[in-house]
Amino acid sequence: ETMRRFKYSFVGTKLRIARIPISVLPLFSFLLPLGFATLNIPFYSETITLNAINIVMKIIENTALIKAMIKLPGSEIVGDAALMLLLSFGLVVLSILSLLVSLVFLLTNFKKFQSKGLGITNLVACLMMIGSSICFGRISDMLAASTLSDAFACGPQWGVYVSAGLFLLSSIVNFMVSFKKVELPPLEEKNEAKEEKAETEEETVNA
């Protein structure tokens, strides 16, 4: 019975089959450009493109830098901008972690076919990506009145909206799955076994 429910959870209907690749698509969107950051100081200028992967890698590789950034919100000059930067990065990281939660909901869906966990998780991730883009876009405006206005600029890029859109699509599909009536296929194998047993018994009686 458990294996029958597990199979139905993944391939029981066309919609359930479709939701598997759709639920995975947001993962690939994290490779897209989510934002840019430009640094202009005397004798040095650089523009970098940020995606979710290099954001996470920078956090892992530069713990000292992260510790310094955590203290920056207390600064009178760049405090608000630093807070927005931390919020922006934090929301992206939480969106990545939400995929792990989604995987758990996907694997355990056979226990409760009408579970809305996947839809809710993906919807929250969509809102977090939008929130991240808003926070990241406000940083340059916050620095406009500071001495860093000409030295640093940043903003969201198209990848963040694609990511939010894919999370929203996944959320809609998973909500549709959760609301759709569940019709488990009959136990054909057991029925066939019973018929074969009955035929065998009949042949034995006739003999």
Task: Describe the protein in words.
Helices cover 69% and strands 9% of the residues. The model has no long low-confidence stretch (mean pLDDT 81). Strand 1 (35-41) and strand 2 (44-50) form a beta hairpin. With 207 residues, it is mostly helical. Strands 2-1-3 form a 3-stranded antiparallel sheet. It has helices spanning 2-11, 14-29, 52-61, 63-71, 79-107, 117-143, 158-179, 188-206; strands at 35-41, 44-50, 152-156. The protein is built from 8 helices and 3 strands; from the N terminus they run H-H-E-E-H-H-H-H-E-H-H. The protein is elongated, with a radius of gyration of 26 Å. The two termini are 36 Å apart.
Keywords:
8 helices; 207 residues; mainly alpha; elongated; 3 strands
Please specify the SSE layout and strand pairing.
Layout: H1 2-11, H2 14-29, E1 35-41, E2 44-50, H3 52-61, H4 63-71, H5 79-107, H6 117-143, E3 152-156, H7 158-179, H8 188-206
Antiparallel strand pairs: 1-2, 1-3
Helix pairs in contact: 1-2, 2-7, 5-6, 6-7
- Poorly predicted spans: none
**In this structure, how is the largest beta sheet organized?**
3 strands, antiparallel
Give the overall silhouette.
elongated
N-C termini distance: 36 Å
For this entry, what is the oligomeric state of its chains? single chain
* Helix/sheet category: mainly alpha
Radius of gyration: 26 Å
Roughly how much helix do the residues carry, as a percent range? 55-70%
- Number of contiguous helices: 8
pLDDT averaged residue by residue: 81
